[in-house]
Write a structure and sequence with these properties.
Blueprint (H helix, E strand, L loop, with lengths): L15 H11 L7 E5 L1 H9 L5 E5 L6 H7 L5 H8 L3 H7 L5 H8 L6 H10 L7 H4 L4 E7 L7 H12 L2 E5 L5 H4 L1 H13 L1
Parallel strand pairs: 1-2, 2-3, 3-4
Helix pairs in contact: 1-2, 4-7, 5-6
């Protein structure tokens, strides 16, 4: 779970650095053989990565994309993105049709104030510069959904593969590849760790 997204709430001064430090304090990320992250969790995994570690990113944009995410938090714009839909549109349109009901049940209810919490997090999305270049010293796998509408394989997945020096594994899924294609995701992960 990404710090600040759980039941404990989202601090007013939430930042990627704060979330990464909370994860580092809670788990031995330095001693881990592999770090796995999806979307925002992938950004945090990339920030925590150490040379030589295996990194698996799924539906994770690195680079200038986050300026567009910050724009969704602007006054008035955020009403449509966060208050009107509160993440439901992202879930519904991001998954393959057969996976939508299960994902909505698992992820749609985040409790009171979720829309404002997500707006605050979007506003704070400022990954470190040259984050993708730091991953050149890691073994990077990108496990991507072939039909991801939010982070399409082309251009986003391929751009992240080029920027990180990673290998791209395309799965039959939408944006939520680890949940939509768990067997394919697991096989890609095992193969990556055995290389």
């Amino acid at each position: 779970m990404v710090p600040g997204l759980g039941d404990d709430g989202t601090p007013d001064d939430w930042s990627l650095e704060w979330a990464a430090e909370r994860l580092r304090a809670e788990w031995d990320t330095d001693g881990a053989d592999a770090l796995v992250g999806h979307d925002l969790g992938g950004v945090l995994a990339a920030m925590l990565a150490r040379p030589g570690q295996a990194i698996v990113l799924s539906g994770t944009a690195l680079g200038p994309y986050w300026a567009a995410i910050r724009a969704t938090a602007w006054p008035f714009v955020n009403r449509a993105f966060y208050h009107q839909y509160a993440g439901r549109l992202f879930l519904r349109n991001g998954a393959l049709p057969e996976h939508r009901p299960g994902l909505a049940e698992a992820f749609a209810d985040h409790g009171e104030g979720w829309a404002e919490r997500m707006r605050r997090i979007a506003w704070a999305m400022r990954p470190p510069r040259a984050l993708s270049k730091r991953l050149h010293e890691c073994r990077v796998l990108l496990a991507w959904g072939r039909q991801d509408p939010w982070y399409p394989v082309f251009p986003v997945g391929r751009a992240v593969a080029r920027a990180t020096g990673g290998r791209l594994a395309v799965l039959e899924a939408g944006h939520f590849a680890p949940w939509e294609a768990p067997l394919g995701f697991s096989e890609a992960l095992v193969e990556h760790l055995e290389r």
